[in-house]
Amino acid sequence: MRVHVADHPLIAHKLTYLRDKRTDTPTFRRLADELVTLLAYEATREVRVTPFNIETPVAPTQGIHLSSPKPLVVPILRAGLGMLDGMMKMLPTAEVGFLGLERNEETLEARTYANRLPEDLDKRQCYVLDPMLATGGTLSAAIRFLVDLGADDITAVVLLAAPEGIERVQREVADIGAPITLVTGAIDERLNDKGYIVPGLGDAGDRLYGVV
Ligand code: URA
């Protein structure tokens, strides 16, 4: 897996306010949205394109447009939904599929509870959205799920990642032949004994949607 830390002053600025426990939910949502749009720019560097002939008012020329089938954006429920609008601003013609994976808080393992994906992802480029790469269990499971359906190029977009999670995903996807990329706003210090990223930003789902 290729790991790309999108270090840019605007990303670091927005992340700082996201981390701040005084940031309220509406502001958190807006910042997450803006941050994802910046990360999406980095994440789509290798999006597949096809030459496309057009005429400007002055002369014919060749440009490019997104190849078909269009990329599939897959937010991991629930917190990944908070990243969907920001991603779709950059890829408005992408399709969207939903995957519900939740973490068992005792075993910290991922379990699939919802799948609204196309049945066949043959040769599809997929962008997986999940704000926090913590233990890595959810992301590994999501990548495996998409590859088993035929996806042949997967980019995970996360706001923050823990080194332990990155290592686990690296290990667990090592046998997958397709290119796998991780784009993150930052790599934090570590996980604590509850599986939270330190310093992190707390529970991303709760901060996006309130505690339920
Ligand atoms: N999920 C979160 O929302 N936050 C963490 O720190 C780890 C997992």
Nearest-integer average pLDDT? 94
Largest sheet: 9 strands, mixed
Rg of Cα set: 17 Å
What CATH architecture do you see?
3-Layer(aba) Sandwich
First-residue to last-residue Cα separation: 34 Å
> Helical element count?
6
Written account of the structure:
It catalyses: UMP + diphosphate = 5-phospho-alpha-D-ribose 1-diphosphate + uracil. Catalyzes the conversion of uracil and 5-phospho-alpha-D-ribose 1-diphosphate (PRPP) to UMP and diphosphate. Uracil binds at residues 197, 202-204. One of its GO terms (biological process) is uracil salvage. Its cofactor is Mg(2+). With 212 residues, the chain is of the alpha/beta class. The chain has a single domain, classed as Rossmann fold (3-Layer(aba) Sandwich), CATH 3.40.50. Helix content is 31%, strand content 32%. It has helices at residues 9-19, 25-43, 84-90, 137-148, 163-172, 204-209, and strands at 2-5, 49-55, 60-66, 72-77, 95-96, 98-103, 110-116, 125-129, 132-133, 153-161, 180-187, 190-191, 197-198. Strands 1, 4, 5, 6, 7, 8, 9, 10 and 11 form a nine-stranded mixed beta sheet that branches. A two-stranded antiparallel sheet has the order 2-3. Strands 12-13 form a two-stranded antiparallel ribbon. Strand 9 (132-133), helix 4 (137-148) and strand 10 (153-161) form a beta-alpha-beta unit. Helix 1 packs antiparallel against helix 2 and helix 2 runs parallel beside helix 3 (84-90). The longest helix is centred in the N-terminal third of the chain and has 19 residues, at 25-43. The chain is globular. The model has no long low-confidence stretch (mean pLDDT 94). It binds uracil. Residues 132, 134, 195-197, 200, 203-205 line the site of uracil.
